[in-house]
Amino acid sequence: xxxxxxxxxxxxxxxxxxxxxxxxxxxxxxxxxxxxxxxxxxxxxxxxxxxxxxxxxxxxxxxxxxxxxxxxxxxxxxxxxxxxxxxxxxxxxx
Length: 94
What we know:
Blueprint: E1 6-8, E2 13-18, E3 21-30, E4 33-40, H1 50-65, E5 68-71, H2 74-82
Parallel strand pairs: 4-5
Antiparallel strand pairs: 1-2, 2-3, 3-4
């Protein structure tokens, strides 16, 4: 599954529409740290890798800007642990 990921800067989130359901990865930018606040994928479209694609899009964007990541969302923290190449982006040692 490869839904189109869109960056909605006005709402501080990455989003995708899957089978008519809005899926999001919300963030706050604090200085040069992207605080990943919440990842939301409705249960009816869960298990398809949508959350992972949203988070990776946010991490890629942050890295391109030279920013660090604070995974305030438990899903983002787990994603980063499962993908050790992303750990270099952590705002502080965890």
